[in-house]
Amino acid sequence: MKYLVYTLREPDTSTVRYIGKSCSGLIRPVQHIQPSRLKEISRKNSWIKSLLKKGQTPNEIGYC
User: What is the mean pLDDT for each group of 10 consecutive residues in the chain (64 residues)?
Assistant: First the structure.
């Protein structure tokens, strides 16, 4: 099985805030900002929620 390694970055500074891997291709990284996925309490979700409140989303998702 092949995996895709991706990053979620801070929009203002391009600092990497999250690194993940996906076996479902490019769909998984985009799912992080869906409201139904943000119900679980985690640092990543808190960060994404704070961005969404400011009208931002994680910077370009970088793929490795």
Answer: 86 90 79 87 94 88 59
Domain range holding 57? 4-63
**What proportions of the chain, in percent to the nearest 5, are helix, strand and coil?**
30, 30, 40
The CB-based long-range contact list for 55-59 (8 Å cut-off, 24+ gap) reads: 56/11, 57/11, 57/33, 58/8, 58/9, 58/10, 58/11, 58/17, 58/18, 58/32, 58/33, 59/8, 59/9, 59/10, 59/11, 59/14
The domain total for the chain is 1
Q: What is the pTM of this model?
A: 0.79
Q: In what order do the strands lie in the sheet with 59-63?
A: 16-22, 4-9, 59-63
